[in-house]
Amino acid sequence: MQTITITRPDDWHLHLRDGAALTFVLPHTARQFARAIVMPNLKPPVTTVELATAYRQRILAALPNGMKFQPLMTLYLTDNTAPDEIRKAKDSGFIHGVKLYPAGATTNSDAGVTNLKHCWKTLEVMQQVGMPLLIHGEVTDSAIDLFDREKAFIDQQLIPLRAAFPELRVVFEHITTKDAADYVRSDTSKKLGATITAHHLLYNRNAIFLGGVRPHYYCLPVLKREKHRLALVEAATSGDARFFLGTDSAPHAKGAKETACGCAGCYTALHALELYAEAFDAAGKLDKLEAFASFHGPDFYRLPRNTEHVTLKRETWKLPDELPFMDTTIIPLRAGEVLQWKLRGN
Ligand code: DOR
Ligand code: ZN
Q1: SS3 at position 189
Q2: Mean pLDDT to the nearest integer, 18-31
Q3: Total domains, the chain
Q4: Which amino acids bring their CB within 6 angstroms of ligand 1?
Q5: Helix runs in the chain, H state only
Q6: Confidence at residue 346, expressed as pLDDT on a 0 to 100 scale
Q7: Domain with 262 in it: what CATH number?
Q8: Whose CA is nearest to atom 7 of ligand 1?
Q9: Which pLDDT does position 107 carry in this prediction?
Q10: Scanning 176, 204, 229, 325, which has the fewest C-beta atoms within 10 Å of its C-beta?
Q11: Active site residue 110
Q12: Using CA positions, which residue lies closest to atom 10 of ligand 1?
């Protein structure tokens, strides 16, 4: 196959940031995707409908003339999120999920949930009104090995949570392990979905240490062993409607990554579809890309599928070494390397 034309995809997990940073990264996503679920981990976090309304306006204002893009907003769950805020969010029509960050699990998660018990009433209302819970699924216990934190989260938090709220729709975000893929597949409720990033399909944890420490391959949840990568490829390319595209593209300035204590996040917004195409192509499953990228997400979120199309061409091109980002740069994943697929200009 030399070209592939698919329904325009959406990104079901994205970090757009705010202010000046937003203006640099938004056009990359808008060129690739029609819509994106926008993460709320700003400083301060997007905890209320009022804050989400203002953030949405800033995103739309930052969109270059002539580009079309629909931000799908989320709220940041805290120990104190009021049940009424969920009703307001549902009524807004533009808030499509509430994000659970276990406090301390990742970038700007300090205001996250310390104990799910504090959120019981709020979760009840989410279940009632049909507001999906989007989960960063890692325990924060420092006694648990970093590579085991997703599996521990499933056993300690996710299984009990879903037993308590069987009708709550849950997206297990950016899954990274065979354990998570198996857990999602074992579920028969139709209430559970999972996003998978391009970097977790393409790389295992060796990429972080290839000849020296490689900060641009460091994200959370961290890349895992090859057996886990293979399980994710199998899940993503299987045609199973519970798995869908979410880049988790997370821009950090070069200096914030290349430092003694570098931030977590891989930047893939510029070339996400090309990376996914490469992963599906390597698995011999390009025919499954469209459903994963363009159908399963809107179906889960109960939104219409897009009607426009995009075309990817088998064509090598060199990704820039750096991308402009405010008064500095971002180093994209695969910087300076050759990609095998190219999204046609549009
Ligand atoms: O790698 C990550 N970066 N994982 C997250 O969960 C957050 C994100 C960010 O905001 O930079
Ligand atoms: Zn994320």
Answers
A1: coil
A2: 98
A3: 1
A4: 15, 41, 106-107, 136, 219-220, 250, 264-265
A5: 19-32, 49-62, 83-92, 120-129, 149-153, 159-164, 178-186, 198-202, 226-236, 254-257, 272-282, 289-290, 296-301
A6: 55
A7: 3.20.20.140
A8: 107
A9: 81
A10: 204
A11: no
A12: 107
Residue 52 pLDDT > 80, yes or no?
yes
203 contacts 225 by C-beta, under 8 angstroms: no
Residue 209 pLDDT > 60: yes
For residue 332, give the 3-state DSSP assignment.
coil
Going by their DSSP bridges, the two strands 323-325 and 328-330 should be labelled as antiparallel
Q: What single-letter DSSP state applies at residue 293?
A: I
**342 - beta bridge partners?**
313
Contact partners, residue 30, CB within 8 Å, separation at least 6: 63, 64, 67, 68, 69
**pLDDT score for 32:** 98
Nearby residues of 124 by Cβ (< 8 Å), 6 or more positions away: 83, 165
Token couple for 267? 């930047």
Q: What is the CA radius of gyration of the chain?
A: 19
210-248: per-residue pLDDT in tens?
A: 999 999 999 999 999 999 999 999 999 999 999 999 999
Q: Which residue in 18, 145, 248, 281 is the catalytic one? A: 248
Confidence (pTM) = 0.98
Q: Which of 38, 247, 248 to mutate to test the pocket of ligand 1 (most atoms within 8 A of CB)?
A: 248
Residue 87 has pLDDT above 70, yes or no: yes
CA of 3 to the centre of ligand 1 (A): 32
- Total residue count of the chain as it appears in this document: 346
HSE of 270 in the Cβ direction (CA atoms, 13 Å)? Answer: 20
The chain-wide mean pLDDT, for the chain, equals 97
- Can you tell me the distance from the alpha carbon of 159 to that of 320, in angstroms, rounded to the nearest whole number? 43
14 Cα: distance to centroid of ligand 2 (angstroms): 6
The candidate with the shortest Cα–Cα distance to 242, out of 305, 188, 306, is 188
Token output for 186: 């074992």
Residue-range definition of the domain harbouring residue 291: 3-343
The side-by-side arrangement of strands in the sheet containing 338-343 is: 3-7, 309-318, 338-343
Tokens of 92: 């807004």
